[in-house]
What does this fold into?
Amino acid sequence: MKAELAMIEPSERQRVLLALVVHEYVRTASPVGSHYLVERYNLDMSSATVRNELAALTEMGYLRQPHTSAGRVPTEEGYRYFVGRLLQETVLPDTMRRTITHQFYQMGNDVEQWMRLAASVLAHQSRAASLVTAPHAEKPRLKHLELINTRGRQVLMVMVMVGGEVRQRLMTLSEPASQEQLSAAAERITRQFLDKSVDAIRASRGSQPNLDSDVLGWLIEELERAESNISGEVYLDGLANVLAEPEFSSSEDARRALRMLEERSMLQDLLARTVLATGNVGGVQVLIGGEGTWNDLRQSSMVLSRYGVPGLATGTLGVLGPMRMSYGKTISVMRFLSSLLSDLVAETLVDEN
Amino acid sequence: MKAELAMIEPSERQRVLLALVVHEYVRTASPVGSHYLVERYNLDMSSATVRNELAALTEMGYLRQPHTSAGRVPTEEGYRYFVGRLLQETVLPDTMRRTITHQFYQMGNDVEQWMRLAASVLAHQSRAASLVTAPHAEKPRLKHLELINTRGRQVLMVMVMVGGEVRQRLMTLSEPASQEQLSAAAERITRQFLDKSVDAIRASRGSQPNLDSDVLGWLIEELERAESNISGEVYLDGLANVLAEPEFSSSEDARRALRMLEERSMLQDLLARTVLATGNVGGVQVLIGGEGTWNDLRQSSMVLSRYGVPGLATGTLGVLGPMRMSYGKTISVMRFLSSLLSDLVAETLVDEN
DNA sequence: AATTAGCACTCTCCTTGCGAGAGTGCTAAC
DNA sequence: GTTAGCACTCTCGCAAGGAGAGTGCTAATT
It folds into this structure.
């Protein structure tokens, strides 16, 4: 967040007007004028009064004019104030909650499908680009190891983590082994390191038989990888939506925003410094205009939330759209999805052995 | 492919000019005129002669003018003729081949990484959007089954397919079972149905013990799913590239093209009707302007190729860009990647047990 | 002291007109 | 068959002008 000089607190009437300007601008994408506001909302004051108040709000930094003699447009600060103080939570209609819940339960227990569905719902409801990361443990712990002979000295290693993540990797043994030997080794190692993190495994690596030593090496390598990944697999949807917005219809900005989602390193950085930095699950965060940190998001806003069971497996929900985005709708959909996914994760993945 | 009335065959000189026009238009994105061509390529004829030939090519349907008194632009047919008859294969420089190959071998045996790398290389080299699908068997056969107790009656089923695909699914047993029982059942089933396709399994499903019956049910369900999927997982890259092209900078068209890649059903349809329809691996197919079938690709072209080992596991490489795309470069990169990936698949995934 | 009517002013946007430039097609000469 | 020359067409950029929207300010009103 950028260093802010304390902003002046608007009066009650100014707050109402600010909310109206934001609402109207989000709807129409064109600057809103005093006369228009009075007309459209049957305000109990004249356009001149509104004009005075808008001028004050402009002075305070919540609004700006694209040029002298145009209507007003919210500034970043304007959106921030709106989201932080003015936005009253709208609750998702009950029928919609039910429909969505139903869809999730129809998918069975397939995490991949949940992710796709979540991304799709987010993208549709917010009419923007969405982003969902699969549940992922910060400190992965081994739940089950399996070794499968494929050919000669090549072996497929399948690791299941506590929390349900599965990773696989094809590797080459230093000397051949039968499937029986492999299975025995896998069972041995599973028993020894059940529920252990990579540190524990690394520590107790001593003088194992040749085969076990090979396997442990890969296991550690793979767990390290899983641990260095800040998030689970990434699912995107609705990328085409952002191109429909007038502010992105041409211009460099759409490209930058898209690149942000495409490029894993940027995304990891973004997530690490926002949702993951704060521990809380279920809360919704809003980044407006890149918050001075992400240049590629200068024209955009992101709504982010974390779901899951902290300590076991958590994931992220995100929506990327123009700054002029329907925050109310987006936030309420995301809040709902976040709690729904948290429930699903808890129900199916929690380890109670 | 659309029904074509036989096109008139251009003369040798016309062919040269057509190639030059295509080349020049791809480079500059603006209509090319007779005078300019003579100047730039030191042609041994006057602009008037060129004008006559261009008029002839226009008459034949290979070129068109955006308006009277503008230069010429290739038509779809023009591109088609160019790609089919005029494009001489450029071979990728040796250093680049080596660099790319090196990168792939550095990834080890991780299919997921290969896919990402392939998508990234394709996107960068062609400066367009790329698409890679993971190796996938048309007729999946079981290689190994594993059952892992998670909690109560919940069981994680991990299936490894011949060819290396891995699928997992969380399911609920009709009555509880210990890990020992699960492992035994998994081994029993693996032994019985090793290398069998879903049909064989469905056929010999008889009076198994309760547990086995449950498991077989899911196994069949999951194999059916794998079989109904026409392709493996889809990896996209360079989506932001297409927005950089002038023809996509604004307008509906970029959105349509993006949607095509995003929407799995469209993509499956596209792949099913093109690369997968023809059996050959390694050949490169070019779709120009949607070929009358895909409306969303009206402004775009796709270059497609299939890689892998037919009958075992194959995947698809694709590039989506504006019709005014550098076909030569794209095709040569794709040809190289296709054979490289085929080698990798053959080396690591072929089953010789 | 706050509100409002009235008005001059500013700026965008759209249209119109016009000249420069690029490129063509045609004709007549080579 | 090729080319020089020329009239013609169309886009593009620029300037000028008018309509429209919206502002800020001042003076009158409540």
Summary: The two ends of chain A are 43 Å apart (CA to CA). The longest strand of chain A covers residues 142-151.
